[in-house]
Request: fold
Amino acid sequence: MLPYIIRRLAIGAVVLVVASFVVFLLVSLSGDPLAQLKANPHIPPAVIAQRERLLHLNESIFARYWIWVSHMFRGDFGNSIAGYPVGPILWGKLGVTLRLVVGATLLSVMFGVGLGVISARRQYSVVDYSATFASFVFFSTPVFVVGILLKQFLAVRVNLAAGKTLLYTLGQQSALLEPSFGSRLLDYTEHTILPVITLTLVTYPAWSRYQRAEMLDVQNSDYIRLARAKGLSPRRVLVRHILRNALIPVVTVIGLDTAAIFGGAVVTESVFGWNAMGQFLLTGIQQIDVNVVLAYLMLTAGIVILFNLLVDIIYGYLDPRIRHA
Amino acid sequence: MPDNPGLLGGATDPATGAPAPSTGVGGSTAPVEAMPSPESFVDTSVAAVAARSQGRAILRRFLRHRLAMASLVLFVAILLLDEIGSRLWPYTYSQLTDALNSGPTGGHPFGTDGVGHDMFAQVMRASLTSIELSLVVAAVSMVIGVAIGALAGYYRSWPEAFLMRFTDLILTIPILAILLVLSRQAARHAGSWLFIGLIIGFVIWTSVARLVRGALLSLRERDFIEAARALGAGDGRIILRHLLPNAVGPIIVNTTLSVATAILLESTLSFLGLGVQPPQTSLGLLISQNQGAATTEWWLFAFPAIFLVVIVLCVNFIGDGLRDAFDPRQTRVRA
Amino acid sequence: MTFAIDETIPGFNVNTSADNEFVLQEVLNQVWPSAFFANGDLKPQMNTDLLTSAKVTSTNPETIVYQINPKAVWSDGTPINADDFIYNWQAQSGNSAYTDVGGKPYDDVSTTGYANIKSVTGSNNGDTVTVVFSTPFGDWQSLFGNIVPAHVAKTVGWNTGFNDYTKVISGGPFVISNYVKDQTVTETANPKWWGKKPVLDSLIFRILSDDSAGPPGMQNKEIQIFNPSAASLATKQALAQVPGITSQAPAGLEFEHMDFSQTDPYLAKVQVRQALAYAIDRQDLINRTVGQLSSTIKPIGDRMFMPTQPQYVDNGTAYEKPDLAKAKSLMQAAGMKLGTDGYFQPTSGPQAGKDLTFTLSTTSGQALRQSEEEVVQTDLQKLGVKVTIQNYTASQLFGTILPKGEYQLAIWAWVDTIFPSGNQPLYCSYTNSQACGSNYDHYANPQVDNLLNQAVATVDPTQATNLYNQADKILWTDMVSLPFFQRPSQIAWVTNLANVVINTSNQGYTWNAQEWGYKAS
Reply:
């Protein structure tokens, strides 16, 4: 197990390095971050020269990349072009984004897998057909359309009916929060419900369909037929044999989609005005702020790699075929 | 030349079947925003081997699939409307009429916007751009994907390593982040829908590539390939005439589904302001421009959104139908 | 009371190029004192809490004497006196003899005016400040705004020392008591404030990442006043649905205009420029765009002053309504032949024999500008001139395209202040690249240079206004640029909040926030 983990981490590190270099090139070559400054006639050239030196803009791309890498190895994400250090800001924003990502993943797993199982058990029934149709529709809708519809129609109606604001559409928390843990938790929840639902609605369909396919495959397989033939109770067959085998493969699919969920989170955060990783990345790209974009990249890619590793270890543990390989 | 054997029995293809943890980040690829690949959604896990003489059987199965047929008809209808209807319609998409912000009426069935555009003309034009763009994406990703996948599956040396690592790259970084950076890159061309189509195509070819690689991997040791080599066929001929045709099914399905993926990705890019730029238009751009009007001038938001969802839905159903047509194993799901 | 702003704050020294932003001005209005500020009538008003008087005591050399209120102190107890004035001058003079901590050059967003000062001296125990100019500067009231505390800046540094909000001590009614980066700035009453106590006990600035979050925020009672950086119809409609608020879209001091680059051989001809100007229906342009936001917006007739300013004169009456016939005859006078397809074709030059085509450029990603381009394109098509649209990102447009003259027609906005001397670098001859860096159009007219030079140095405001308007008349005759309309700003506040006075200058709406309070209901 250990050599496997180390090998995976090593591969992951290589991937990160290559990705960082490619993205560094793309971002650095997309324009001059000081362009607007240079256009301002009032700013003395000495000031511009100083900023250029601070951002190392006069040096070659490779030299600049090397500077970034050497800082990275010390755990320093560098400074944004505005001058403040990226690292501390990033962790705070990551925490906020994780509320959305973790919430959506959990909800999608429960809802998607559950729906997939039910659809498979009641194949060709009304439930199956309507769940399938709903899955297709949500799968075909961009996440921002779902978000906008929920914001404009669901939130307004619910809040009106309740007489107070239950579903917040602005930001990730209120401006003035009482410090008590309970009220903070409630506030975060009220702000997170709609975005999580939005991201879940576009994530669950694929997992639901996959789970349904797995269930059908297992349900109709020979060894299940044997178990039934042996006279085992349907419940025992379902729980001890079908589910135990069918629930495992979807785990890997979930791991594979982690990067996509982060991508979807960027859009969802934009729709709901959250001040988190998504806005961080978008601003960094607009302003050609290399350190910001790379920091986002390293963090999300790192999380995805680690999560996939975890998922594969769990999968390896759960799947007896692999365990004894 | 012996005929190719039939279906691959019940064996699942190693590259796209049950994910094997030891090959690193393996399995289905090319996530779309928060959605996993079209493969795992519409289960193309069987590298169906459809011989050319079975083409007619495949066609028959597709025609019998009612939902897919209906979707195909609707899709073609929309395409015709966009191409031909826009020529017959009295207003062009860039024309400024004197009706400002009017709701749907006889003269303007989709209403007008604040500057005076006829929304029906705009939606037709935007649909056309979105569809054209996604077709470009499909073509680009198919060509690159098949090429890399074939090389990786057949030669197994550096092309395979490159493919595997590139796939890892694509899987670990949110595609959206890559696309955002790329579209910012050459801002002079950033507005052109063709450019957006190309960069999306350059990023989502990995799922086709893995498919093709998997198919070739399982087939290259087969007897009929040995026979072809013994008869003196070169590598190129073997790949093109014997191996690839067997992967045609999944390639077609995957390429079809990538059309849907492309439209969704492009609309997201446009929504974030980094996709198609005015004066060109696309469905994503129209939705983005009018999102604030969803409750006040609903026609500005609703019609582009409906068209977008319907088009993508149709493509997904068509892809599903194709997958069913290529894979007659009835134990798998039916739409 | 929460005030929503939609841009982030890099640091607090608004006088540096790094931090200079409109929203920061709104935050600092109640914190750092200014000698003069722009009031709601768009006139400079002396800060009577800080100064007891500010007079021009001599015009040759120009000498100003400020009398600082002896009660004026910073929130750490240090008196506000001549040392602060001296420091602020040195930091913004552009003189390399003065450096920030560590010997670094000062980062200034502008040295205009300060560069003309010869000396600043204190007397009378630091309560009297005498400023002597080496070259006359008419807009002296624009100086010594947002005064940075000298004794703090000399330790922490002008350039980056105020990125730490705790160093931003106050000389105004409020102090910055808390700052959560990219989220909120909290201001509470300054215990050392010597003037009239503010009514509200706290001002919170909430940073929104998107304007669309404003109206729901007001609905949820999370924010009480909302000032988006870009006015839009969608925001207006969304605000209209929120109960209990007042929402307005007053015309701002920022105006949209289209410029003609005279590096193009055809646009170098004044008749071509005039023809294009006669072809564009500016009122129709307004109707299709900002007119839906505010019905009072009209085409502008003066580049130096906006219709909402008292100094405004309509110098462009000739172009009030479009005149296609005149435009066509002007084109023919410029040597264009009307082709059979309805488009003009030049008889000489790079486009000879082909349909005359110009590229029109502006910043991408702005719905308003796209609409402006479409109307211009349609109008010019009616005249018989083709327009292709080629847009750029803001940093490309302002960083490369405009300064290098790589455009033909371009639309963008100038942000005016209440002080017109900022107009000089826009219209003085481009050959003087040092002083006229914003003249992207390659325009040169020695008469305009003369008038502007005089205007900038004239201390008498009426005389100066006259000179500026004379220069503007020539700009109309030469059709250097075609001003379109004032961009509306947008402001909404809960009706219960009293004493909010509209201020469309870049002073911002918080200019009198010390007088805001909730009405007793």
Summary: The domain at 252-488 of chain C is CATH 3.10.105.10 (Dipeptide-binding Protein; domain 3). The two ends of chain C are 17 Å apart (CA to CA).
